Amino acid sequence: MKKRIVFFEAVGGTDKGEDGHRRDTMPMVNALSTHGWTGEVIQLSDEILRDENESKKIYEFVRDNADGYVSRVNPGNIKEEKLYFEMLRKLCDDGLVGMPHPDAMIGYGAKDALTKLADTELVPDDTYAYYDIATFKSTFPKSLAKGERVLKQNRGSTGEGIWRVRLENAGDYGKFDSLALDTKIICTEAKDNHSEERKLGEFMDFCEQYIVGDNGMLVDMTFLPRIKEGEIRILMLYKTPVYVVHKKPAEGGDAFSATLFSGAKYRYDEPKEWENLIGWFLERLPEIRTKLGNYDLPLIWTADFILDTDENGKDKYVLGEINCSCVGFTSPAEFMAKIAVMVGENIVNIVSEKKA
Fold this sequence. Notes:
It is a single chain. The protein is α+β, with helices and mostly antiparallel strands and 356 residues long. Strand 3 (68-71), helix 4 (81-93) and strand 4 form a beta-alpha-beta unit. It is built from eleven helices and 15 strands. 33% of the residues lie in helices and 26% in strands. It has three domains: 4-100 and 338-355, Rossmann fold, CATH 3.40.50.2300; 109-114 and 226-332, D-amino Acid Aminotransferase, Chain A, domain 1, CATH 3.30.470.20; 125-223, Cathepsin B, Chain A (Alpha-Beta Complex), CATH 3.90.70.
């Protein structure tokens, strides 16, 4: 075993520090050194990935000199994601340990992961994914007729393209099997909690942009009003919960977004303070892994939950999203050094086990 790990980053982007690296990358590299391992950062760009000679050099270097890689490329920082994933897939086929495997990034990180879990206790069974415009336009008027919904695009971040959609006249829910195109609706985007009054047909035309293109899709799920009480995010290192973030949306109006940009307030808790949720979630990891392609769990990932109420009036948790492409752990600052050490230990253990 070479005891060498490559960390892939993207050139540029707003997620870099003064040294040009993500602020959580070098702490992980340094953590590996305490175990006698070497970490090396390779930065990629669209130009490098398009250049067959340059990309081949990088691929061959990593193949011949490393035991595995850790992907720290933020979605959106590289447009040539397909070429990037092809390189990662080849490295995994060559026997390197992918953290994560590119298909795991797709399986866990794509919004339609929710639909693959819709027959479990984690997600409501009326959760849909639209991969073509025709299906979206024929099905969404039916789902909205039953109650308030949330539409989530597959691309984007910080709440962009995530819409809370409700009827202007709430008394019309349940009256129709399907809504007319001129039905008046109110749409609130999670990015900044701004609301717009629109007609259903016009809004669906607007949403076509989220479906077209590579990996385009829309996920349609029921709106859970208890999001106002806060979204609960579990930060996971492989199989271990590290901390829980309670993200309370801003007060007033139609606000439902749990992003900092929208004014949400964050509180960081130890896992033991959410013992019931953590225990329930960890019991379901084998089922989640099976449903999402049976790939190994990501190295650093998050699961977001929203409170709901069951038929007996008791609290229950609903999975709203999984993130795993490039989850950061720079906040809160006092946690970063501790987490980096834990990441280093996980990397050594995962690779050693896989290479044994």
